[in-house]
Specification:
heterotrimer; C: mainly alpha; 2 domains
Chain lengths: 483, 102, 225
Amino acid sequence: MSDIHWPVIVILLPLAGGVACFLWPRRSVLLGLLTALGVVACVAGLGWQVVEQGAQRYAVGGWGAPLGIDLYADGLSLLMLTVTAVVGLGISVYSSGYFERARYGQDRARHFWPVWMFLWTALNALFLSADIFNLYVTLELLGLAAVVLVALAGGADAVSGAMRYLLVSLLGSLFYLLGVALLYHSFGSVDIAILAERVEPSPAVWAAMGLMIAGLLLKTALFPLHFWLPSAHASAPAPVSALLSALVVKASFYILLRLWLEIFPFANAALAQLLGLLGAAAVFWGGFQALRQTRLKMLIAYSTVAQLGYLFLAFPLASITGWTGALYMLLSHAAAKTAMFMAAGNTLYFGGHDRIADLDRAVQRMPLTMTAFALAGISIMGLPPSGGFIAKWLLLEAAIRSGQWWWGGVLILGGLLSAAWVFKVVGYAFTRSEAPHEARAVPATMEWTALLMAVLAILLGLFAPWLLALLEIGSPFNRENAG
Amino acid sequence: MSPAFLYALVGVGLFTLGLYALIVHAHLLRKILAINVMASGVFLVLVALAARTQGAAPDPVPHAMVITGIVVAVSATALALALMLRVRAETGRAELAEEPLE
Amino acid sequence: MTERGKKQLPFRLLLVALLFVLTAGLGYAVLTLPSQAPGLSNPVVANLEASGVSNPVTAVLLNFRAYDTLLELGVLLLALFGVWSLAAVPECRESPPGPVLDGLSRLLVPWLILVAGYLLWAGAHAPGGAFQAGSVLAAAGVLLLLTGWRLDTRFSGLPLRMSLVAGLGVFVVVAVVLILMGGRLLEYPPSFAGALILLIEAAATLSIGMTLAALFLGARPEAGP
């Protein structure tokens, strides 16, 4: 069991599943669901291996860095893979209901599964890669898959949103790739660990840092580079919106975090403060815009802009508590936002629209869905005992310990803004609408997966000690703390 | 200094030239071409600097990276062109609407 | 339009200034790079013997960094999934080819296939390889598509899809078999390396050629099971 190549299986399985879905489109739902289950099992296997034996380094082809490509799995990678596996399984189950019987019909389902499996491959490969050029390839695989899935919704909004998303994604990748070129030609390697040893400040390294951070911020949609996100995330099919907000934007944040900690530890405090300020601006701007929206999915998309802002508050805090707080925010947001977009998808499916003012007693008509929305809202607001609460608590603690209490103010005000829009939506869900409409029954799988994801977002608050212990494997943050 | 650096500087020039065109032009075909010019610039930087050690054979690793990059660029361009046709079919114009900057 | 242009003038000047600063900064960064740097040439040359091919670029692409190439074949296939999901109806105007195009394609297509085969073979020891060969094969396909040739509907289902995924499929199968034999991911035994690389490249050439031609067509072929 211990010598099974789990990191490789975790990457090759969804890839093979995607190819199988493409070859036998009529069986794609079954093949996709089976693959999803298999991937979850294999991530569990990898998790067992990492917990038992510590961080794993795997030399592809037996060459080893710098000549070959290395895969690397530590606690941080494992956490990201686990979030992806859990959310991915939820999205797969939800999609089997959504695409089968929704207005999308068989044809869209056939196109959805292979691309979704490739997207999953890209995520797993990205979280396991220890090579900055290999990361570029996974970023492109991820970006193209995400764009295709957005465009699957059809219609002017979705294809325009997808087009803008594609251009932004390619632009971000090119900035990143030019940075990779400068680093390779400076130090003769693209392996993160080797670069971390050899790197020393020089004009080329500063340029590479600027290019790579700019490219990744664009892909992560940090304010003011968020302009592409709301239209792409809101116009996509509901399960796709969920996986974009929950997973795809987090992937570029993960790369940014790795580079920041390993290759650019000498980055100055001013840049960290700037990232923190942009994060704070994102929290306020995203929260304020969310409050103004009249469409549910657009509202949730703007809330993603706000929630991404919290992740960047950890940069000026620069402590282990701060980083774990940001990562806890990342995973509780992934669960909560998946639940929210699923709930929005259910109301859209049910009533054919997502106008907030016309939710028309949704609580009575879809109690499970509205419970899911409210529970996810609790985590987004950061109320105990949810995962969002733990995340904000850790960030607050880090802020006070580092003597920068004002970042704590951002957390509290951001929570109040979230509370305002959550109560607005829930309020409309209780009232009778002016314009009652025809309703269509929502498949039970769609309602239950939404609820389960929301319950998970709450339960994350109770599992905190166990998950935080995971992050110590391979201790990705210790170097930062010492430096 | 070897002539390789001259080519690398041209690559940097192509990169920013493409960036200018990407921002300024509204037509999607021009934006897609601009992205391709930027990509060529990056590839040129990668390949040119691989040959900067005089009297030695060029470093093969950046060459392989560029081949990988070209295939990625071709794939992305094909998808972008297909999307552009869809945007035109849905909205009647091969341009994106002005950004709603509220 | 001119009104808009006038309004945009200050913006454009600012943009040009910013990009000028960016170019200067990046140019300076490039010029300060060490003027002599072997990069990874030495380890590549040292391990060339064990890689199974004598062309260093092919050795990097299909052995030392073969994992990148595997994922990149995935990117190419993904682009095809995307294009097929976007356009179900071919938008081409069907017009009969002129005598020049018709004659030229009859003359050129066999040669292009032959050149593709040569490039595939030459890749082991000289510039060439699966991507170059695949591109030439795709050119032959594009030429055929321009003359109005279309794949017979008998083959446009599973057989077509099989040939599109052949490159990635063979790559993955080879990887899995090698792991089952006790190696690591894409760790070729040196004595078989040359043959395995040729096998992967042959399948990749077919798939790359087919995929690029299919991307050119821009729509899913009609019918097929």
